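Predict the 3D structure for this chain.
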Amino acid sequence: MKNLIQKAIRRRNPSFTFDPALGNVALCSFIWTQCWGLLRGLKLLFLFKNPKMAMLGKRVSFFNTPKITFGRFLKLGNDVYISALGKQGVQLGDNVSIGAFSRVVVSTSFNHLGEYIKIGNNVGMGEYAYLGGAGGLEIGDDSIIGQYFSCHPENHIASDLSIAIRHQGVTRKGIKIGKNCWIGSKVTILDGVEIGEGSIIAAGAVVNKSFPENSIIGGVPAKLLKTRI
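Done. Predicted structure below.
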């Protein structure tokens, strides 16, 4: 049975192999959880979406579903919320995994719609992420991301001292993260940042400027620590 399940998982992750130390009790629990996830994924039919083998956790919810697109084997943890209120909505590639309690929100305002959120193929993201898409957010293929990740492609204008900040409007440049990046836990990326392909961002970094490909970045604010060669 273990071999059959391993073959099934390899449809989503071709390099997957069960650890020899994995016990039967844990394996049965895993199977049970995955089966329930697939069953919950069928609720996408009621939203006029092809489930494409999606696995959904408990209490997953969506807003503005006509502008949500996704590829095969989508996996969303418990209490994930996806809101595609925006000009282009939310686009998720194949084999995208988003951890529990995460929020994927293009915009929250009905009077100034945001742009989009695009996540490429084979992207894995930990729990408690917050992805904003006001100015546009792109995450490239094969990127792996730790817990408590946040992206904020928008800034408030605060230049006029006589007007409340909330009435001065915003600027939006967008955020782009290249392919094959490794982003540690509790990383925050701010508006206007571009991260080059193959880069690594250390846990806890606050990134407020762009870096070229193969950069290793860390600190608050983040700086270049070294280059992968």
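Residues 152 and 190 are 5 Å apart (CA to CA).
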